[in-house]
Automatic annotation (TrEMBL):
Boundaries of every HPr domain copy: 8-69
Listed name of the protein: HPr family phosphocarrier protein
Species: Chengkuizengella marina
Stored Gene3D superfamilies: HPr-like (3.30.1340.10)
Superkingdom assignment: Bacteria
Amino acid sequence: MSKNEAIMEISQTANKFTSSIVLQFENKYIDVKSILGLFTTLVDSNSYELHVHGPDQEEAIASMQEVFAKHNLTIVVKKD
């Protein structure tokens, strides 16, 4: 699968939830619901931190872990 397909699926999955879903990479914070933000940040070989806050947080985390794993992208979920 291409990077474009991964970005589209990640964004579409994130948009199913009302929770805030933010990807942290180094000192950048990217709204996962923003396709443009993902295009400028998502690189295959990096690890990202995922921050999820909101009423459907647990479901959002599970879905995001699934879609990132499907595209061989490494995320670490940060719970505050």
